[in-house]
Amino acid sequence: SRLSGMPDLVMVLSRPEIMDDVAFHPCVHRRKWESERKIGFVPPDGQFKLASFHVAMETSPRALPLYVRAVSSRSEQMYTVEIVLEPGQCNGRPVDQVCVKVPLPQQAYNIGVQCKTGTHTVSNARSPQVEWSVKSVRAGDQGLRLVIQYLMRSSNSSNTPPAEQGVLAAFIDFEVTGYSASSIKVDALRLLRESYKLFKGVRYATKAGSYQVRF
User: Fold this and answer.
1) What SS3 state is found at 46?
2) Which of 17, 44, 97, 167 is deepest in the core (most CB within 10 A)?
3) How far apart are the C-alpha atoms of 105 and 128, rounded to whole Å?
């Protein structure tokens, strides 16, 4: 923080009752949270994470900012992976810095990629991977599709599980500025034990975290 002295702050959140698995920074007074569902804390110097928590989808009125449909199929020796991005509802704000990473089996070769939106790169290292980047996805966008096709070398190991003969998952990153996917917002921030005025401002942002789609 950039506050002088030993300020005691109290943060009031909207809908704190929907927060699960809450983990607080050591500076938080836990008794205040347990009794009033308010976050009281003395901020340490510098930047810090005040709290982390989970919100179940059924308790939040918000939809996901981005939906991902993924299908994997095989026709003789050709493997095909198709991924479609569909914008969700995030108050008209764009979903920025979208990045889809698709790890391919080690035996994959002759990799072909088709996409009309964004850019893609193909890594042919020991663990091949296709990375698809889309700068921004907005409401109403259509045709955001990635198609990957590849062949497979036969495995020399009889212990190779059948699941490794195809793509298992896709990993997605994105961010939405000015949007809270959990619907939780800061209603008030109060300053105690200090006489100076507190200039308050809140910036909301949603990031993908550990977002993956399994085939």
Assistant:
1) coil
2) 167
3) 7
